[in-house]
Amino acid sequence: MERNLALVAMFAALIAALGLIPKLTLGFGVPITAQTMGVMLCGTVLGARRGALAVLLFLALVALGLPLLAGGRGGLGVFATPSVGFLVGWPVAAFVTGLIVQNWRGNLAVVSAVASVLGGIVVLYGFGVVGMAFMLDKTLAEAALLVTAFIPGDVLKAVLAGGITSGLAKARPNSILSRG
Ligand SMILES: O=C(O)CCCC[C@@H]1SC[C@@H]2NC(=O)N[C@@H]21
């Protein structure tokens, strides 16, 4: 129990730490950020439930005003930006990513990378597109076209998440809760 809580807090802190890497804000107001890789890692390492909880804890701290989003942003205002769909989708992305890793045996690096693509890109972009269409007053098709700008970076993050998860499993097998 205490160990679960500590790991959830540690991964919320990991997402915050990845926010120290400078973001690149695109013309339509949603940044390219390394924090998405933290969301993927929450799922691949902690599994569905604990991974989603870590992301929810991170978002709760952001909502309370802590400047933990890349570029030092925080507060309820960030949920009224074109990023809102992605932010709402982050816990779901971690959950789906974790669910896939928990249920799919096979090479951990490959499974984690593929799970990160499915949860952290396919599912997450669904939320992101709806949020962007709403906030930017665009059609779903127009918003979907805009998010393609994130694909190369996010695929790279998914591959990195796979490698990091597999490396962690070799160094500290007990830390991989998704394969418990
Ligand atoms: O910091 C924010 O405003 C939230 C950012 C949400 C960014 C989304 S997550 C998926 C896609 N990949 C990125 O690198 N950025 C977007």
TrEMBL record:
<protein>
    <recommendedName>
        <fullName>Biotin transporter</fullName>
    </recommendedName>
</protein>
<feature type="transmembrane region" description="Helical">
    <location>
        <begin position="51"/>
        <end position="69"/>
    </location>
</feature>
<keyword id="KW-1133">Transmembrane helix</keyword>
<dbReference type="Pfam" id="PF02632">
    <property type="entry name" value="BioY"/>
</dbReference>
<keyword id="KW-0472">Membrane</keyword>
<dbReference type="GO" id="GO:0015225">
    <property type="term" value="F:biotin transmembrane transporter activity"/>
</dbReference>
<dbReference type="GO" id="GO:0005886">
    <property type="term" value="C:plasma membrane"/>
</dbReference>
<feature type="transmembrane region" description="Helical">
    <location>
        <begin position="76"/>
        <end position="101"/>
    </location>
</feature>
<dbReference type="InterPro" id="IPR003784">
    <property type="entry name" value="BioY"/>
</dbReference>
<keyword id="KW-0812">Transmembrane</keyword>
<keyword id="KW-0813">Transport</keyword>
<feature type="transmembrane region" description="Helical">
    <location>
        <begin position="113"/>
        <end position="136"/>
    </location>
</feature>
<keyword id="KW-1003">Cell membrane</keyword>
<comment type="similarity">
    <text>Belongs to the BioY family.</text>
</comment>
